[in-house]
Amino acid sequence: AEKDDDEKKKAAPQVTESAKEAVSPPTQGNSPQSKPEAWPVATGVLKVRLKSASGFVATDFNKKADPFVLVSSGKQQKKSKVKKETLSPVWNEDLMLTGTLQALVAAPLKLTLCDYNSHLKIFSAHEEKIGSVQITLNAFKLERACMQDSAIDFAEEMGSSGGTLRFSVAWKPLPVHLIAKGTLHVFLRHADGLKPMDISGFSDPYVKLSLCGTTRKSKTVKKSLDPIWNESFKFTGVLYELLAEPLSLHVSDYDLGRKDNDLGDAAISLHALENGELVELSAPLSTQGTVYLRAAWQAEGAAPPPAAIAAETASPEGGRRRSSTRRFL
């Protein structure tokens, strides 16, 4: 019987000292009922910083793994980046769950370590489960961590599969409009002064726009250094998450049958959308020239922005007439 008790203790999740107060249901002394007024207005982000994993068993024939982590709470699920061929992955990656503090602490927080495998297709995804951990968070410990600008650290053992998953959890209160779901509209308008790449002294430019792992591509404008696109692109998600990283632009010159030439890159902060629904953006490229855009936020249930957000006068070659007047609706 003593041997069985020892084995049960070893199999139980191990939590760092700083995290002990944050797991398991609240005790009578710090019950959420003692502070009910905090629940209705406590909206924000539960930030899970995925640090590292170690000590787990490889599932591939080459004794390696391509690990990634699924973080879930209630109906929300986020996926980390895949780390190639390693049994000691280091992520240092933030995965964010949005909502009310009440809802996020009511549902268990689950982290599942998986091995990406292109030859498998389980539940419509190329993944094989390695192990998982599950914790229940204490709301008031999270509130204190937020006020102290610190996070709660965990080092959890993944049960029978072996291995340890290290991560931290922090609560960040935010205004309701920042955790709203919706659509970020990016209007690619035009560019000026692009670098000529062809013998003719022109380029055939197109733009790739990337945000939060999603990439969109514009049409190609033929023979122009001042192209007009007038195209609209959509990125869906939570406003806070969409604004957490810059919008990346990569401009290229299309070449039939050859590798496309690089015309420059740019990264644009979208934080101005925190205080407004429509912003003007200009992006100087890393080589030469500038790209001009507009960005607009449409919360779920709200009316979309005007379809004709910008008007440009095009030349027969597809470029912009320098003498034309741009009008914005």
Can you offer a commentary on this structure?
There is one protein chain. It is built from 4 helices and 16 strands. With 329 residues, it is mainly β. The chain has 2 domains: 173 residues, C2 domain (Immunoglobulin-like, Sandwich); 121 residues, Immunoglobulin-like (Sandwich). It is flat and about 65 Å long. This is C2 domain-containing protein.
Task: Give the CATH topology of the largest domain.
Answer: Immunoglobulin-like
Order of helical and strand elements: HEEEEHEEHEEEEEEHEEEE
Structural class comes to mainly beta
**Which regions are unreliable across 5 or more consecutive residues at pLDDT < 50?**
7-41, 310-318, 320-329
Largest sheet: spatial strand order = 4-1-8-7
What is the name of the CATH class of the largest domain? Answer: Mainly Beta
Number of structural units classed as domains: 2
Largest sheet: 4 strands, antiparallel
Beta-strand content estimate = 35-45%
Give the beta-strand count: 16
First-last Cα distance: 78 Å
CATH-defined architecture of the largest domain: Sandwich
CATH superfamily of the largest domain: C2 domain
Radius of gyration: 25 Å
Shape: flat
